[in-house]
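To the wet lab folks,

You asked to see what we're planning to order before we commit. Fair enough. Below is the target structure as tokens, and below that is the sequence we designed to fit it. If anything looks off to you, flag it before the synthesis order goes out.
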């Protein structure tokens, strides 16, 4: 996909995941996702990449609420391995070979469109989040519901937890994402060649 639909744009959770369902019925078996995220792990720097190992989705509406369509998947899907350990292993090997530094962590999904307050970044970090963003978790839930394998990578575009003044702008997020793009592209290309 070139871009995606976000919940904060006013689409329902069901509308946000509709393209994922279409792609499943077009025959995909693996879903690769990228996103921009705010770093909360103190080891992270702007421009770093983070493999998403797990996520927290409680802060966004679950796209599976409502009638379950058995043709898509079960009523109560397992979420013990939302992000394929096998694909994470492959990505780590590729990153080593390409000398790309990768973090691995938990992505906390929020609705946006506001960036978080200082207290919110702190809370999300305490809750186990390493990065926070306004996308991905609903798409991953829908993908896992249908049994797709998922791999996802965050570009850390800003840092949420800092003592100094911490104004975050959309421009700096876009700029950091643009700068990290070549790293991201080479990693995804190599990963796709190994699928
Ligand atoms: N918070 C939420 N979403 C984001 C951020 C952030 O700091 N950066 C990029 N997307």
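Sequence we intend to order:
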């Amino acid at each position: 996909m070139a871009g995606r639909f976000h919940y904060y744009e006013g689409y329902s959770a069901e509308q946000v995941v509709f393209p994922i369902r279409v792609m499943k019925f077009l025959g995909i078996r693996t879903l690769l996702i990228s996103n921009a995220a705010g770093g909360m792990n103190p080891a992270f720097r702007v421009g770093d990449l983070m493999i998403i190992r797990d996520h927290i989705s409680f802060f966004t509406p679950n796209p599976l609420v409502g009638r379950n369509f058995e043709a898509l998947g079960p009523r109560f899907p397992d979420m013990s391995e939302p992000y394929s350990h096998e694909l994470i292993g492959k990505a780590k090997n590729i990153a080593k070979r390409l000398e790309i530094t990768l973090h691995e962590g938990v992505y906390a999904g929020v609705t946006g469109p506001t960036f978080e307050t200082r207290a919110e970044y702190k809370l999300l970090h305490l809750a186990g989040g390493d990065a926070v963003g306004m996308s991905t978790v609903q798409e991953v839930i829908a993908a896992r519901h249908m049994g797709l394998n998922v791999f996802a990578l965050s570009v850390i575009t800003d840092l949420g937890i800092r003592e100094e003044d911490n104004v975050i702008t959309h421009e700096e997020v876009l700029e950091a994402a643009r700068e990290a793009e070549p790293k991201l592209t080479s990693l995804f290309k190599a990963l796709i060649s190994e699928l």
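Structural context that might help your review: The first strand starts at residue 30 and ends at 39. The mean pLDDT is 94.

Thanks,
Computational group
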